[in-house]
Amino acid sequence: MKLTLNVPTLGFIIATRAALGVGIGMLVAGRMPPSRRRKVGSALVALGAATTIPAVMAIRRGRAGVHRPTLAA
Q: By C-alpha distance, which of 52, 44, 55 is closest to 20?
């Protein structure tokens, strides 16, 4: 399978996945005061989750633009 994405779209997808991962990491880590950790971690998880649908749509558009050969009968 081939996927075609432009650089800004790829950067968007990487950034949203990173925000989600860092947010989850902050929620489970103990390196910050608990109240601040919950606020920042929750905000990053919410950002990552909210941008999941646009990221998936961008990936689908990247796949839709690729020509798929069909089998001749």
A: 44
Torsion-angle region of residue 27: left (phi > 0), alpha (psi -120 to 50) or beta? alpha
CB 11 within 8 A of CB 51: no
Tokens at 26, concatenated: 């902050």
What is the spatial distance between Cα 66 and Cα 73, in angstroms, rounded to a whole number? 22
CA trace torsion 59, 64, 67, 68 (10° rounding): 90
Please tell me whether residue 3 adopts helix, strand or coil conformation. coil
Confirm whether pTM is higher than 0.85.
Answer: no
73 residues of the chain, pLDDT tens digit each? 677 778 888 888 888 888 888 888 888 887 788 888 888 888 888 888 888 888 888 888 887 665 555 455 4
